[in-house]
Design a protein that fits this description.
This protein is an alpha+beta fold. It is built from 29 helices and 17 strands. Strand 4 and strand 5 (175-179) form a beta hairpin.
Amino acid sequence: MAICLRIPTTAIWSAMILPLLVVGCGQSENNPAATPIAKPAAAPAKAQGPQTGVAPQVADSKGKDKYAYYGKGDGYTPLQQTGRDTWIMWTGGNQKFFRLGSEKAGRLGIPLEYFRLLDSRGRPTRFQRLGLVNEPNFRQATQPDEYGLWLDEWLGDDTYPDTKIYGEPTGVVGLRKFLNPKFDKSRWNVEQYFQKPHTIEPPYLVGMSCGFCHMGFNPLKPPADPENPLWENLAANLGNQFLKEGGIFFGDGKVVYGGENGGKGLGNEDILYHLGETQQRGTSETSRLSYDFINNPNVINSIFFLENRPAFKESLNPPARQQLTKLLDPDTMPIHHVLKDGSDSQGIPIASIRVYVNIGMCGSYWIEQLWNPFNPDVPQKPFDMALASQNFPEWDETLKRMPALEAYLATYTPMRLEKAEGGKYQGELVIPDSYKNGTDDQKARWKIVERGQIVFAENCAFCHSSKQPESGDAKQALDTLKTYFTSGNGQEDEATKQARTTVKAYYRTAVVQDGFLDNNTLTDDVRYPVSELKENAARALATNAIQGHIWEQFSSPEYKGQPTARQLTLYNPITGNNDRTFQPPGGGRGYYRTASLVSIWATAPFLHNNSVGTFNGDPSVRGRIAVFNDAVHKLLYPQDRDGLKSIKRASTRTYLNIRLAVLGSAALEKIRVYKPKLPDLPGLKLPEVFQLVEDETLKDVPGIGELDRLSIRIAIPEGMPINLLANINVSDPEKRIAAVVAYLTYAWQTDIAAEVSKVPVVGKELAKIPQQLAKDGMNELLKLSECPDLVEDHGHEYGADLNDDDKKALIEYLKKL
């Protein structure tokens, strides 16, 4: 065991990195002054120097880059207009939270800041590298500003919302810039800032709006150049399917450890790099801060027909009811299922404000409720809405914006492929409605669509339609069928089989009606057990909304009272077969809400984690259709999916760094006395699997003890499934210690087997012993896992048994949704 005195590449286990960046403060941030909801105002003339709250003069009064060209332009009502600006620009004060995270993380030796991400020299390739959407009406800087920061130059816009309220744009949609009241120009040193960002206050604070993840390209009007879109090319309802969130934090975005490797950021010798690289494009790990010990990034939801979403008879928690009474009569408000697991179930206003909390609003209180890796035995605690309302003005300021936000989001209707770029792809990429009464050849092609309607009616509409029978035998049959599927009670009985026949007959008539797609969300929004859907279980097993956890007040009692899902049968890397069983815990976990199929042609790849379909990075209409065609083929022909290749693995030998303060003294003692078993082979040298590393920069920091300064650096073999480690609940001290021992066994024996196998003649036979011991270690890790489901793209095989002609017909119909 070696002692290396150096600054570690990282400071903490991949599963703990972002909670560490912001936890353990116990301090209150300065609450912002109350800000009224205001209509967008014309900005005053440009002021000298960097001033937030003042927009520059418009560079070209006839320029098409004006914000007024976004969406419906002047077709929004004042209420919708406020909702639009709230969605795209409102931060809820989280700029203070992000700065607080930089300060606390830096004191623990973890550099964290955002100006490398915003460096204007990277503007021409931001979309290609990171999937970021460059804000229109900007240009790349030709020199640093007066503070030495390379920031995009805003050309100004007299239709832009008041920057005194929303902050100034940064050049990246969804990231906002605010003057830092703590900035002292006389102390500013840009080199010192980038080396140790926690030691010096920057001139600006950076905040994040919902638009950062939700703003994408309009599939009907894609940009000619994705790096230089116009406002008319953007749509904030579809979600950014190109976002490379993992790379933003741990890769080329250089938010965390951006100064490593000569300013290139983390390299492949750090497990965090691999964690970011294996995150699917277009997904967001929404529990990255409110960590639930499951690596479960999921696709960013598209939003259509918000006012038509199915409603459910579920109960309001008293805290949610208290907040809702500030806006409306809670007893008349519909309850919808929101999020992949349908856990947000206290009304759209409460679901929406939770998003702002999750990205840092009320940050100094919120982070005190999160799991703190430096006090690892204490679990996360529920976020209290009443306390937030009492102590943080931004809570009520944001809450009163929620009806406006809902009104804005309700303006989005389907983006039909037939209308893309003025209808230029009709007949080529999609069979248009006009073919129904066209030439004989056109009518023949229309027959394919008609067959697709019937296939959809018989195989998809049961779940993927918000239009359902309202009375009679068909309604009773539908209720029977949904009860069967949501209860997970095994084999169908005769009553269920008859119900299926009745429901199919109803939808065969309904789907072919001219108005079937009008106001149809193409989802029933029902929660179905993952044991029925058989998809990767990670997101369904999320814990944040169950009793006693961070979002307890945001989920209904009915969510928490759902029946326990049936046992799952999963891929077992020990045997190479699908023979590993896992029982999902109860309390609300184990379910997925039906996804919407509206504009599905534009939203591939598919499934909750974007795992089905090959990402191509092309936002053009043809680019989207290429991904759709690949994804829908794999959806209907599951044998052509990636399967085992979809397991997230370390692509090279890499390293994991864990603070000893996180592991605790008991785990450290286990590490010190651990001795791996060795084959009886004279002269075999024990591979070095771990080192103790001391961060000398923390040596004289008050309140930082020896365990805080020391990390254990453990080798990770090439090819190791990342989620072997990322899905361990290390807040449980017994699991934490057991996981350390199991992982040391796995890693050490894997290395020993590699060395032994090199020995001539007898090596391969002798290597079987450490290979089996490595498997034993892996098996223990899977037993400890919160989600031992490693294959990403399995499940949802409905339609796989259709014949080829019916699959082709269904695909043609799906393009028209």
